[in-house]
Structure to design on (133 residues):
C-alpha cells in the first residue's frame, strides 16, 4: 500500500501530541527511520509541507503570502491579515511579504489553495485580451 505525504505527516503530527522535548527527539528519529525504510526520504519536502498544513489547521494558524510592487504599509498589512482571519476563521495569520517590481502595482495574495490576483500587470493583460476580442 502506498502512503501519501499527507498520511505520513498526519502520523507524525499525531505521534508528537503531548510529547516532551526528549520524546519529540525520539519520535523524529523513529519517523526518519521509517521514511528511510519506506524509501521516501526524497519526498521530505512534500511531507514537511503537509505537516505544516496540518499543524496550522489544528492550531488555528494560516500561512499566506502576498506579493506587491512595493512594501506594504502597516495599515495595509493589518487589513490583509484581518481579511484572511474573517475569510478563513483562522486565529492567527503568518503572512509572508514579497516585493516584485514587475507587478507595476496591486498585489497577488496566496492562501490555502487560493490565489487572489489584484496586480496591475494582470488587470492590464485582462483588459488587453478583452479589447482584442
Amino acid at each position: 500500500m502506498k502512503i501519501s505525504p499527507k498520511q505520513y505527516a498526519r502520523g507524525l503530527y499525531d505521534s508528537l501530541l503531548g510529547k516532551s522535548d526528549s520524546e519529540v527527539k525520539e519520535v523524529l528519529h523513529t519517523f526518519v527511520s521509517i521514511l528511510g525504510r519506506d524509501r521516501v526520504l526524497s519526498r521530505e519536502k512534500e511531507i514537511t509541507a503537509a505537516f505544516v498544513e496540518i499543524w496550522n489547521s489544528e492550531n488555528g494558524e494560516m500561512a499566506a503570502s502576498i506579493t506587491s510592487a512595493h512594501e506594504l504599509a502597516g495599515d495595509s498589512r493589518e487589513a490583509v491579515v484581518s481579511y484572511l482571519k474573517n475569510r478563513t476563521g483562522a486565529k492567527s495569520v503568518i503572512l509572508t511579504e514579497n516585493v516584485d517590481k514587475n507587478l507595476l502595482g496591486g498585489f497577488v495574495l496566496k492562501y490555502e489553495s487560493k490565489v487572489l490576483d489584484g496586480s496591475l500587470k494582470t488587470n492590464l493583460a485582462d483588459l488587453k485580451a478583452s479589447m482584442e476580442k
Observations:
- Residues 60-132 form one domain.
- The chain has five helices and four strands.
